[in-house]
Amino acid sequence: MTGTMVGILTILCVGLVSRCSGALHYPPASLGDQVKVHGKAGGEETGRVGSDDPKLKEHDLNEIFRLQHFLEEMVRQQKTPAVRPGSLTSLVTQARSYLLDLAPLYLPDPASANPECRRDLLALYTALAAWPHLSQTDTLWPLKLIDSWGKFADGVLVGNFQLLLGFFTECVSLRVSPETKHFSSDPDLQDHLPGFEENILRLQDILGYLPEFEENSFGRQGNILEQQNLKAEFSLNLDADFQGQYCLLTYGAGNTTSEQDDVGRGRLRPAPRTPSVSALLSQYISLSYYATCMPSTCTPAELKDTVEAAMAPTGLEIKTIECQVDQPHHLDSSEITGLVLVGVMVVVLAAATLLDLYSASTPTRVHYRKGHLQYLLVFSVSHNIQKLFQVTSARSPEVITCLHGIRFLSITWVVLGHQYAYSTSVAQNTIESFKLTKKVAFQVIANADVSVDTFFFMSGLLVSAGLLRRVTSTGKFNVLQYYIHRIVRLLPPIAVTVMLVATVSEMAVGGPASQSYTTYYLKGCRHSWWTDVTFTSNFFFSFLQQMGKTDEAATCLPHCWYTAVDMQLYVFTPIVLLPLCYWPKSRRAWAWVWAWTGASVVVPAVIVGVYHTWPASLLLLNDTEDMLEYNHKVYLMPWCRAGPYIVGIWAGYLLHRSRDSPRITRLSTWQVVVGWACAWVVALAVLLGIARYNYADTPDVVPEMTLTEAVLYGGLHRAAWAAALAWVVLACHWGYGGPVDWILSHPSWQPLSRLTYTIYLTSLPLQFMLLYSTQRPTYYTHLTKIEETCGVLLMSVCAAVVVTLLAESPILGLEKLILHPEKSTKQDKVSSPIQEGEVDVQGVETDLQGVKVDLRVVEVDLHDSKSHLRDTEETSDAKLIEQKQEIGIIHEE
Predict the structure, then answer these.
(1) 561-577 burial, b if ≥16 CB within 10 A, otherwise e?
(2) pLDDT per position as a tens digit, 23-44
(3) What pTM was computed for the model?
């Protein structure tokens, strides 16, 4: 951290020191200088034709050299008392000073620039020299160009480096055309420019330096200036023709491992190579960056050469340059494909909705809901959204209502942790933000990855309870149905989210780092989307370099490592649980399950001990190698995340047994007190226990765990967290939850709970889009992070509703129609059946045998006299089910 700050401050001082020595002035070029003509702007071909006449080049450079000395004289003669902070005089003086001090770091060297770029640079110097008089004509572009540069401001010593982003919009909005400016030497002009009367040089001094200064009809220049009482008018040609070109430069120490030399490519900062929170903070200060604004006629290559020459004495070098100009967005093939697919889906949803509303309007149209049209009706927005936001207040012993609150609070915790981690890269107070991590309470954020273990626990609980119930009641295990349902449940929302991110998301991103979004994030997304939809991404993170993914993102949805691990654990669940299903009294069956339980704790402990990896996600800075080893060997591996999943399996087994043995649920007061006390102690120990080892600083400052501590914590903490959650769920479900159960089981959680999975999928892409669209940094505090998280959650909920209506509800309906047609014939509205203890996320009512009835459809079917008695019975049963099984055994990632 200290080295990075020294490098940044060195760059800050380069201009000031070199200005005093004259080293940064562009000297006049000789006729023998060689000039390369680049016909590009912003890295793109322009087809521009310019003159590279050596005599003209020498003339331009001489004029620039003279104007530099003239501007120095103007700045030197500026009288300080007349310069008021915030006045126009102050702004002009600063612009001139910045141009003299920082030009070699922000503008190409005119001696090596192409003719068009050199012409526009000459116009810039000329305009700033003549600015007091040009102000009559509202010529603001010279000030805007320099004002938009990213420059150091207050708070550098607390990490306020991010103001170097400059003002993106101010730069790219510039449009400069050739023009001739007319102004006068009217003494009364000073009345219209307060603050200039004591601070500008005489007009004859300006005229002696300005090129292409033409006399007007009043006679020769010298005679005019001698007549102090005449109002002389003069004209000045500014032969500039360009747009503002915003360029973001990243720099770092020379001879580093980063070898990206292609100009116009790169990224704002090295993106996390794994989705772990620990993969973030140590990366954010590895490169520094700043922004400049230059004429679009200049090329990134010319700027790079000039800046590297200025940085050479400091040992720093340019890593990447990304330049962009404001131009109409042209749809590429990916965006067109995405828009077409979205359009097709919208048409299908609209047709299904219209058919649903039409057929349900009167009983005589019920026949439209039969036959092949029922396959279209599952896409009805009106019906699916009604299910999505349905709320049931009735309580039942068959319903685990506390899972609603646990589910949504956990996803909120995940989003909050991501917001804290990723937004560090655009914080104004980077160093102060690191200090926040030293407080014990910050472990709620630093250790937030246990929120993912909460989902692993719920997954194990729901799958095991459903599997045990299914096998116990039928005596059979349908392998094909078990795995098909899981794929149908998880894959469509992932596929739609990947499609939207890879195709149309670029249209919503704009700002200083928007090119990085395309050249880095979307590039990796479009190359590696298949790892997300095949549930294998967690295994590929450790092979990114071998795969050649060194200058692109790992995948579209890096957080889908979780769904990959969850699917892998789901695949092996029958192997662990089926012996206990078929032989519940067999000692061998019990020994088998206990062996897997022990392995889920021992394996991660052994890996931590053998490889000396981190035991958990830590915030250590400048320790990238250890962080990557931890992620690749522990964090992303299913055998190291199985602990909470297997604890969930045990919790599901207890729920299943409690149905047949109610005495299990009868607890004495002391048992309840001890249970809650142990749960709180264990949860707090897991969450806060490593506070002294887990804060943002370098490894030589942060204490290191002993090997014993690391092994014990690494092996036990995830399973211990799940055990505490298991008590919360069981206690709330069995009636010992008190206020905790009242909060977690409140009906208001139900709609949000059904959206949890799609919120998880859409939230991180939205956070990436917002991060890459950031134009100004923010002050990093707990309050700002909470505010940002609330905004992201609101956007995520809206996006989740869209993805649910597009891919989740309809596909689950189709699954019911195709795989369970005998049940579908009883109703036009279909939903996912209970499968391995799962209930459709839409909150469909189910009875204990998995038969579901749609109340609305049953009411319609009552008009059919042939099935009146049957439907009446099902209606009564469904009303009972609505009270008992609103969410039932539900699985939500």
Answers:
(1) bbbbbbbbbbeebbebb
(2) 344 443 332 333 233 333 333 3
(3) 0.78
